[in-house]
Amino acid sequence: MPRRLFRNAACCLAACLALAGCQEPPARAAMAPVSQPVSTPETASEAEAVSTPETASEAEAASAPETASAPETASEAEAASLPEAASEAEAAPEPAPLPDLEDPPQGEDWAVVLVNASHPMGQEEAPPQLVPVAEGSPYRVDSRILEPFQQMAAAAQAEGVSLLVCSAYRPYSSQQRNFENSVAAYLAQGYSQEQAVATTAAYIAYPGQSEHQTGLALDIVTPAYQALDSGYADTPAAQWLLENAADYGFTLRYPADKAALTGIQFEPWHYRYVGEQVAAYLMGHGLCLEEYWQLLEENAG
Ligand SMILES: [Zn+2]
């Protein structure tokens, strides 16, 4: 029963910060008080699409938003759009109460695992086997989702839509390194420890809290539009994924109207394998993975 996959909530600063599974480089704007808990929509979305590493290890270490986007200096940090992010977050609609639904499909334990700020992964946890998403690709996924992903990409291509993976598996260690490097950079700029951590956390997911550590998440863009921003949602690739990804077992993990539940703002590029049955169920009922787990809990109780 997948219930056991729930992990103990991490009691830390993350609880009051909405953290992204991945992140986007900070945009230029005024600085918010670092003590202010912020839900960072765009800021906390991902930014990994930028790099084209040559090797898997480089891809996993460097590609990350949770990575590449870490501000190098305090002035860059100050430029981040935190105030805007906070107000957008406040404006996010509260999710509707769960409808009375039939029993959700069980799904495979490994495929429906929930990873978020409340359910972090352990330092040693990693997919059992990682494989490149395509021959020669630096991006790796859990071997169990390779075939569904490749089938999905081929189906899209057959309809004239090119899917481009810009991030996949990211290990705990690279996330931790990125986080620590960012904190150190802020400390060097004269931030207090608390400020340095809070500012870092606005851009970079805490180690263990990125779903990319599962090897089941992919950031998918298209050659003609590789920016990780909301504009991607209007591309044929994003629209094709929205309509068809569930047929291959993938779900849009961070829909715009579920940010209050997922803790992460709309990320039209971030897809997560959950299995065909569960993906169809989520899509059919307009649910996110957090709601699926809530239903499982309620039905089990
Ligand atoms: Zn992602």
Quaternary form: single chain
Q: Give a quick account of the main beta sheet: strands, pairing sense, barrel closure.
A: 4 strands, antiparallel
Ligand list = zinc ion
**Percentage of residues in strands:** 5-15%
What is the radius of gyration computed over CA atoms, rounded to a whole number of angstroms? 18 Å
Give the helix/strand class: alpha+beta
Pfam families: VanY (PF02557)
Domain D-alanyl-D-alanine carboxypeptidase-like core: 140-275
Biased composition (Low complexity): 38-93
Signal peptide: 1-20
Write a concise keyword list for the protein shown above:
alpha+beta; Muramoyl-pentapeptide Carboxypeptidase, domain 2; four-stranded antiparallel beta sheet; globular; disordered N terminus; binds zinc ion
Q: What's the topology here?
A:
Layout (H helix, E strand, L loop, with lengths): L55 H7 L2 H4 L5 H5 L3 H10 L38 E3 L7 E3 L3 H13 L5 E4 L4 H17 L4 H11 L13 E5 L14 H9 L5 E3 L6 H4 L7 E4 L2 H10 L3 H12 L1
Antiparallel strand pairs: 1-2, 3-4, 4-6, 5-6
Helix pairs in contact: 6-7
Bound molecules: zinc ion.
The site of zinc ion has 8 residues, from strand 4.
What does this structure look like?
With 301 residues, this protein is an alpha+beta fold. It has a single domain, classed as Muramoyl-pentapeptide Carboxypeptidase, domain 2, CATH 3.30.1380.10. It contains 11 helices and 6 strands. The longest helix is centred in the middle third of the chain and has 17 residues. 49% of the residues are buried. The site of zinc ion (ZN) has 8 residues, from strand 4. Zinc ion binds next to strand 4.
